[in-house]
Amino acid sequence: MPHILLPAVTLRPGARLLGLILAAALPLAGCGRLQNVGKTPQFTPVDASAEFMAMNNPPMPEITRTGGLTSASLWSGSRASLLGDQRAGLRGDILTVVIEINDKAEISNTSGRSRSSSEKMGIGGMFGIPQRLNAELPEGASMDEAMGTNSKSSYQGNGNVARKEKLTLRVAATVLDTLPNGVLRIQGSQEVRVNYEIRELVVTGFVRPEDISRQNEVTYDKIAGARISYGGRGMISDVQQPRYGQQVADAVLPF
């Protein structure tokens, strides 16, 4: 087989470094894409989630001694009774988070500033000295006005912001832990796969037990430190993202 000789190309140190970075990053970045070719995106394993660990390791129940009549009564205060409090309150309990975001913000700011000033200083009358000096000064020079300044500045700025967001979702969350002050730390996740696209929803935050309704629901505006993520992964999301080579080039190239 004949050998083909290619002309030698001398690269600058910066170009060589960029080439090495691209050569090392592109194959590694493309491996994940190649593994999903022709396959549906996989769900996140539930067995390793924080919700599963909280439900699999609930707090030890308190030992109470009650008679058979009390435990079987419909009017007992236990959580298992008909009229008991069924709201989530312990590690591993499940509650429903209602997300109804309908925000609309319009901000318009206009500012303007204008300033004009004029200053003059002279020695028009001082025992007749300026008039006597004017006769001795060269033509065009005078002591009537010793100094004069003029300045003018103006500024004008405009800004507009328009934003509208609407999101209506419901997701089951799990109580991960109870803080010393009684506040519950919750986390909920949900994944729905449609064809080759997975829709992901993640909710985390802190909830007061008294903010949970009798229907065992809590709205998102009562969650402190709420972190709500709504997105997806799959073929459609992959096409919407720039290629790894373009992302690396945008981050490395200085122009």
Describe this structure as you would to a colleague.
The protein has 255 residues and is of the alpha+beta class. The chain has 3 domains: 13-40 and 246-250; 50-58 and 70-105 and 164-242, no CATH class; 107-160, no CATH class. Helix content is 23%, strand content 38%. It is built from 6 helices and 6 strands. Strands 5-1-2-3-4-6 form a 6-stranded mixed β-sheet. α1 (13-35) runs antiparallel to α6 (244-252). 7% of the residues are buried.
Task: Please outline the helices and strands.
Elements: H1 13-35, H2 50-56, H3 68-72, E1 94-121, H4 129-136, E2 147-178, E3 184-194, E4 197-207, E5 217-219, E6 224-234, H5 235-240, H6 244-252
Parallel strand pairs: 1-5
Antiparallel strand pairs: 1-2, 2-3, 3-4, 4-6
Helix pairs in contact: 1-6
Essential attributes:
255 residues, alpha+beta, 3 domains, 6 strands, 38% strand, elongated
Summarize this structure briefly.
The protein is of the alpha+beta class.
Query: Which blocks of ≥5 consecutive residues have pLDDT under 50?
Result: 4-9
In total, the number of domains comes to 3
State mean pLDDT (0 to 100 scale).
75
One letter per element, helices H and strands E, the order comes to HHHEHEEEEEHH
Structure annotation, total helices: 6
Seen as an oligomer or otherwise, the chain set is: single chain
Strand order of the largest sheet: 5-1-2-3-4-6
Q: How much helicity do the residues have?
A: 10-25%
Largest sheet, in brief, is: 6 strands, mixed
